[in-house]
Amino acid sequence: MRYALAAIIAALVSFVGNGARAATATGSFNVQVTIAATCVVTSATNLNFGTQGVLSAAVNQTSTITVTCTNTTPYNIGLNQGVNGSSVTTRQMKSSGGALINYSLYSNSGMTTNWGQTVGTDTVAGTGNGSGQAYTVYGQIPAQTTPAPASYTDTITVTVTY
Questions:
Q1: How confident is the model at residue 33 (pLDDT cuts 50, 70, 90)?
Q2: Of the four, 44, 74, 75, 94, which is 20 to 30 A from 150 by CA?
Q3: What is the mean pLDDT of residues 84-91?
Q4: Element (H or E) spanning 14, and its range?
Q5: d(Cα 52, Cα 142) in Å, to the nearest integer?
Q6: How far is CA 38 from CA 21, 35, 68, 77, 120, in A?
């Protein structure tokens, strides 16, 4: 029995001594993302000329377009002729009865630079910084023969080329 007790103690000591050691293994993995040059029109506020009477003098108003592009991405913002105009220099709002009101969109506060859609000619250029960048659209209804009372509308498409 003495030998049996000694053998059990020896086995326990050997188990505790060898089993207390931990082993580890390591590995690794890569983390990656590719950022593509991208632009989005974040917002475009409506251009509202309000309620007018006789159009005997120019009516001016502004709108804001916000564009977000990846950092260092060059871009151009273009505005089309709308659904009623025949070109970017002859934009028109239309009533449900078919009457038209002429208006213009400009990229500068002096209202001398027409805002169109031909890159390098009449668009607005910028370079992305990764955040929203705001641009003011200057709108003007010039003095003209006033059509019948009604609501007049048009829809402009904003295109960002990058």
A1: very high
A2: 44
A3: 96
A4: helix 2-19
A5: 12
A6: 54, 8, 8, 13, 20
